[in-house]
Design a protein that fits this description.
The protein is mainly alpha-helical. Helices cover 49% and strands 4% of the residues. The longest helix has 23 residues.
């Protein structure tokens, strides 16, 4: 081989003379040694996965290869094939690894790394609802929590939802279940526990539209409720009467009020600050303090020794400490306000008779929020102001929430009733009748003729 041939960056190693290389069928070889690096020498056909015939094409390929080597981005075809094989093996092994993750284990991880880590105020509700999913018994008698997460199908989830509906769970609870399950499965797909969520767009596992709740609190019932709340304030650990008034005066949710600190109360500007971590929408907002609520807050800002509470104390706690729940205090208050003495069993549960009476009364703490908004609307407060106080995302939500259209219609009818009987003209309206109806002289009396 001639010296000229040996110094070519692309050449052939066949028995053909170098003058015949452009026409012979053998592969071109690439040879290159970067400064300070190893020598590269290989067949272009084998490396690039196809036959390169012309020398021009071979030299172009060699130029690209040298650029990649110098830039440090070049990998031999064997290395690429090895990486692809290892990746395919890892992908194949991934379902096997995640198949060992049971629903019980996944729920524990999801709650810890999802809702709880994000600071969601209601993460315990999510944990409870997903716990009912894990406790569900499937057709083979096993707990669903024992199943592999990857083995749970849409059909099993729909069967669980149907079982809860048959058991008489409230529509709002069923909707919350659907929301929590879908959120957990979307998180599982994002984190690689499953390839995709088993819940499809056409699934029966979907939220249903609830009938709008229109429970109102009459002044008489409000008085009875506050009297019952005042009687148990000392032993309940919560200033329940103040909490009820605050809900009616601010429209705040129960959790927002229980999380309120004295640092959030500005009596000079007559404002409450609902912090983002307590707000359902995760957005902080400012709520004006009414005269009625201001009087309650001034009285509540003293501890049993007559000293003012520090800014870090909770507003509606009897001793400034955080209150976890008001369930028992509220249910006792509602039953007594309606003339019924509750019967509490061991374990802190109401008797069956007391539960039935409570269900018949059908008054929830959240109804106070509805009542506040409805009263503001009936008093003439603009709807967009109510939206801001309640912390709704848009005014259509407030409109639906308060059934503003129905209230406005009733208000219009009240104004009509008030105006009924008042003269709308100074003289009676002349009744026009057809000519000749009352005699021959009618045509002359009719001003239109």
């Amino acid at each position: 081989m001639s010296p000229r041939a040996r110094h070519h960056s692309v050449r052939k190693v066949c028995g053909c003379g170098w003058r015949r290389w452009p026409k012979c069928p053998h592969a071109w070889y690439f040879s290159y040694k970067p400064r300070g690096g190893p020598r590269y020498r290989f067949s272009l056909d084998a490396e690039l996965g196809g036959h390169i015939g012309s020398k021009t094409d071979a030299e172009k390929a060699a130029t690209d290869l040298r650029s990649a080597i110098n830039a440090g981005t070049f990998k031999r075809a064997a290395e690429v094939r090895q990486e692809r094989t290892e990746l395919a093996a890892a992908e194949a092994a991934r379902p096997a690894a995640t198949a060992a993750v049971t629903l019980d284990r996944f729920v524990a991880v999801y709650i810890e790394r999802g809702p709880k880590a994000s600071g969601k105020a209601t993460w315990k509700d999510d944990e409870y609802l997903l716990g009912t999913l894990c406790a569900h018994r499937t057709a083979d008698g096993r707990r669903l929590g024992e199943w592999s997460l990857a083995a749970i199908t849409e059909d099993e989830l729909e069967a669980f939802h149907a079982a809860k509906r048959t058991a008489g769970r409230a529509a709002s609870t069923l909707n919350h279940l659907v929301q929590v399950i879908k959120a957990a499965l979307r998180w599982a797909a994002r984190k690689g526990y499953v390839a995709r969520s088993p819940v499809s767009d056409g699934s029966a596992l979907k939220r249903t539209k609830l009938a709008q709740r229109a429970r109102r609190l009459t002044p008489e019932r409000e008085t009875a409720l506050l009297a019952a709340a005042g009687a148990l304030t000392r032993g309940a650990g919560v200033r329940l009467s103040g909490l009820i008034i605050a809900a009616l005066e601010t429209g705040c949710r129960r959790g927002e009020l229980l999380g309120l600190l004295w640092a959030d109360v500005n009596m000079e500007r007559r404002e409450l600050r609902v912090r983002a971590e307590n707000a359902k929408s995760r957005d902080a907002r400012t709520v004006p303090i009414s005269t009625r609520l201001a009087a309650v807050l001034q009285m509540a800002n003293l501890d049993p020794a007559g000293r003012r509470y520090p800014p870090t104390a909770h507003v509606f706690s009897a001793l400034g400490e955080p209150v976890k729940t008001i369930k028992r205090a509220w249910e006792t208050c509602v039953l007594r306000a309606h003339g019924y003495e509750p019967q509490w069993l061991k374990g802190g549960k109401l008797s069956a008779e007391s539960r039935a009476t409570l269900a018949e009364i059908n008054l929830h703490f959240h109804d106070l929020r509805h009542e506040a908004g409805s009263r503001w609307l009936e008093a003439g407060m603009p709807l967009h102001h109510i939206k801001e106080i309640l912390g709704h995302a848009n005014i259509s939500q407030t409109d639906t929430y308060l059934n503003a259209g129905r209230i406005a219609l009733q208000d219009s009818m009240r104004r009509f009733d008030a105006a009924r009987g008042k003269p709308v003209a100074k003289s009676p309206v002349t009744e026009h009748r057809p000519v000749g109806h009352d005699g021959p002289d009618q045509a002359q009396k009719d001003p239109l003729h």
